[in-house]
């Protein structure tokens, strides 16, 4: 099951040239770049691990610096989801302007929907990633970072 979060998630994976173009667009708008990764892709897991500090004050000419960080994160966590987020500070608060996935595990096991009967005929549903059945570091097979 292919994880669909953020912009472009229904398209084929972006190439490095396409990622660079998106980074250039974000930097051209004055947005800050953040790179995040996770091995728990639950849709409500909005707080992925940060790869370094957010990249503030970069210009479109600095796109290679941002790409270098994207590549380093993908090399450090090849079996994790890696996401680029661009924040627009013009609203004077942290506002996501653009977010897209730049790396995925080779196998994406998907999610399980759990149904639980509660009081007074109330039915509750929960979503759980199959990957989280394994401890962190072993969720996507051998060699998982």
Automatic annotation (TrEMBL):
RuBisCO catalyzes two reactions: the carboxylation of D-ribulose 1,5-bisphosphate, the primary event in carbon dioxide fixation, as well as the oxidative fragmentation of the pentose substrate. Both reactions occur simultaneously and in competition at the same active site. Although the small subunit is not catalytic it is essential for maximal activity. HAMAP family: RuBisCO_S_bact (MF_00859). It comes from Gaiella occulta. Residues 4-105 form the Ribulose bisphosphate carboxylase small subunit domain. This is Ribulose bisphosphate carboxylase small subunit. The gene is cbbS. The keyword Methyltransferase does not apply. It comes from the Bacteria. Pfam families: RuBisCO_small. Belongs to the RuBisCO small chain family. The basic functional RuBisCO is composed of a large chain homodimer in a 'head-to-tail' conformation. In form I RuBisCO this homodimer is arranged in a barrel-like tetramer with the small subunits forming a tetrameric 'cap' on each end of the 'barrel'. One of its GO terms (molecular function) is ribulose-bisphosphate carboxylase activity. Heterohexadecamer of 8 large and 8 small subunits. PANTHER family: RIBULOSE BISPHOSPHATE CARBOXYLASE SMALL CHAIN 1, CHLOROPLASTIC, RIBULOSE BISPHOSPHATE CARBOXYLASE SMALL SUBUNIT. InterPro entries: RuBisCO_ssu, RuBisCO_ssu_dom, RuBisCO_ssu_sf. Keywords: Calvin cycle, Carbon dioxide fixation. One of its GO terms (biological process) is reductive pentose-phosphate cycle.
């Amino acid at each position: 099951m292919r994880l669909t979060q953020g912009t472009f998630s229904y398209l084929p994976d972006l190439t490095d040239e396409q990622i660079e173009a998106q980074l250039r667009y974000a930097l051209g708008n004055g947005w800050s770049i953040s790179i995040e990764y996770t091995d728990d892709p639950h849709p409500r897991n909005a707080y992925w691990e940060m790869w370094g500090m957010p990249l503030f004050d970069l210009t479109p000419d600095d796109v290679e610096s941002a790409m270098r960080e994207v590549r380093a994160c993908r090399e450090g966590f090849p079996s994790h989801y890696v996401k680029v987020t661009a924040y627009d500070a013009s609203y004077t608060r942290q506002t996501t302007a653009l977010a897209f996935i730049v790396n995925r595990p080779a196998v994406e096991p998907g999610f399980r929907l759990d149904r639980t009967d509660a009081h007074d005929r109330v039915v509750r549903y929960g979503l759980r990633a199959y990957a989280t059945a394994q401890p962190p570091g072993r969720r996507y097979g051998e060699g998982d970072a």
